[in-house]
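User: What would this chain look like folded?
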Amino acid sequence: MTTASTATASAHSANSAHASGSSHDTAATAAVVRSRPRGRLDWRLRFAALSLIWGFSFLLIKVGTDGYVPFQVTLGRLVFGAAVLAAAMLVKRERLPRGLRTWGHLAVAALLLNALPFSLFAYSELTIPSTLAGICNATSPLWGMALSLVALSEDRPTRVRVAGLGIGFLGVLTVLGAWQGFHGLDVTGTAMALLASLSYPIGWIYVRRTLAGSSASHLSLTGAQLLLATVQLAVVTPLFTSLPTQLSIVPLLAIVALGALGTGLAVLIQYGLVAEVGPTTAQMVTYFIPVIATAAGVAVLGESLAWSTPVGAVIVLAGAALTQVKRRA
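Assistant: Here's the prediction, encoded as C-alpha cells.
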C-alpha cells in the first residue's frame, strides 16, 4: 500500500505478517478489534472507498512529480496526512503518546513505514509508469513472508506459504519481462519501487518487536508517527532541493489529495474496518490496489500496458494470497 503506520502494522497482527497491510499487534489495537463497533456507513462502501483511494495514490504521485521534485511531493503528502490525523485527534481529544522510548521507536517506524517508502515511490515514478509502481507495491506480502521466516520465530512456514512465495516472485519476473532480458525496463526506478515495498515489512517487524506493548491508542500512535515522518522530510528536503520556481496547481492538488485522502483519511477508514470486520477482511483491500492502480494509469494517464504486466500482476497476487494461508490447527 502507499501508506502505512505503526497503527496499521499493529492492526493486522492477528493475520500474521501480511505485508501490504500486514502486521503486528499492540494492546490498544487489540482492544479496538475486540470492541467491533459498527460504522455509520456500510463497511463494504468504506472498503471500496479505501481500495479506490490507495489504488489512485500511484496516479497522484505521478501527477505530483510533474510539478515538484519527489522529496517535495513526499513532504507535502506527510504534511496534509498529519493534518488530517491531528484534526481527528482534536475531535476525539486524544493525546500524543508519552515516553522517550516510545518516541524513539516511533521515529524508526516513521522512517521505515512513511518517509523512506513514500520518497522511494515518488523517485521511482520519475522513470517508471504508475502502473508498474502499483504492482511493485503488491510485492510487500512476499517480502513480509520471506522476512518473517527469518525474523519471527513464531511464524512457522508451511508448504503452501513457501509455494506462494515462489509463485509470487515468478509473477514479479513476469511483470518485469525477465525472459526478454528486462528490455525497456528502467532498472533504477524499478529497484526503488521494490525497495519501497520491502521497507514496509521491515517496519512492521520492527513495530512488532518494539511497540507491541504500547498502551497508547492507534490514533495517537499513528498521529505521532506521521508527525515524526513530516519532521524527517522537513529536515531532508531543503538539503537536497530548492524552492519551486512556479506554483503548479494541478500537481499541488494531487499532493493535497495524496496526503489528505491517501495518507490521512485512508488510515482512519482502515481502522474503522479493522475494528468492525476484523483484520482478515480489512486486509483484502491489498489485492484491489494494483488492479485499480493499473486501470487508473492506463485510463487517466494513457500509460501503455504490455500483456505481461496484468498477467504477472495476477500471479503476484495469487502468490501473495497463498503466503497468508494459515496453518490448520
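Residues 129 and 303 are 7 Å apart (CA to CA). If you want, I can go into more detail on any region.
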